[in-house]
Amino acid sequence: MTDLAPRDGDRTSNFLAKTIRNLGEGLTGIAASEKGEWYLSIGYLLQRVRSGRFLETLKDEWDRYRDKGRIKDDYLDTDQHQECLQEILDFLDNDSPDHIRFTALKQVFLNAATEELSSRTSVLPQQYMRICRSLNSSEVLVLQANYKIAKGGHNPKTYGFAEWCRHIAENSELRFAELVASHENSLMAKGLVSERRYSDRSGVQHTDHFRLTDLGFALCQFMEQHDLEPDKDA
Questions:
Q1: Model confidence at 200, in pLDDT bands (50, 70, 90)?
Q2: Which residues, including other chains, have CB under 8 Å from residue 189's CB and lie 6 or more apart?
Q3: Which of 13, 71, 153, 190 lies 20 to 30 Å from 20, alpha-carbon distance?
Q4: DSSP-assigned beta bridge partners for residue 209
Q5: Average of pLDDT values for 197-225?
Q6: Domain ranges of the chain
Q7: Which of 79-83, 112-116, 197-201 has the lowest mean pLDDT?
Q8: In the predicted model, what is the mean pLDDT of the chain?
Q9: In 3-state terms, what secondary structure has residue 234?
Q10: Quick check: 224 and 132 in contact, CB under 8 A?
């Protein structure tokens, strides 16, 4: 069972624990009301339940990072932390959260907090959070597959649009090149993958990151999950 006891001295952990408790009490109150709050849809209630589970995951991982010393005490006072925390809470409260998008946002949040990929004075983590929030789950999968291929060293110097779609489909859960193609325009508009080229638009602009732009590659670095070192006494 998840331990929701607040961690002494960690205001973020305490805040998350309180938010989870309040959410649970609110759902219990709705279920127990005589009218049953009939105007609330089943979909809304399900979203609140899922948001509560995501919050528990966020708190658990935040606590693990803090316990490992990966997040400094004074980072909690930074504008960057407060703005990134607000962004992920707004996502859970106002959007329709799903596991893929939540995981991407959570990792940007945690990787920013370690200050290993950016400094606490940088505005980039906040920008990455907003970009992640604007993506749908399939777009996240396309970016992650492209990142996986680029990191694996398979970055052919020449390839066309159809070949790019096929490689992404084979390296993601999307499976079908047609699904990859349907998300290309949105990712190009956000500056995360390179533009098409040639008059018949059959080709794509090549980059050093298998079609990820520098922005797209940097975003994927922040979305990447890193395993924490195991406890010495484990």
A1: low
A2: none
A3: 71
A4: 212
A5: 88
A6: 11-134, 137-223
A7: 197-201
A8: 85
A9: coil
A10: no
Q: Residue 214 — φ and ψ, nearest 5°?
A: -60, -40
**AA identity, residue 131:** I
Cβ atoms of 209 and 147 closer than 8 Å: yes
pLDDT at 203: 81
Q: How far apart are CA 145 and CA 161, in angstroms?
A: 15
CA distance 7 to 42: 34
SS3 helix, strand, coil % of the chain, rounded to 5? 60, 5, 35
pLDDT at residue 232, rounded to an integer: 43
Q: Given this structure, which CATH class describes domain 137-223?
A: mainly alpha
Q: And the tokens for 172? A: 């993601």
* 228's tokens: 């924490």
Cα 18 versus chain centre, distance: 23
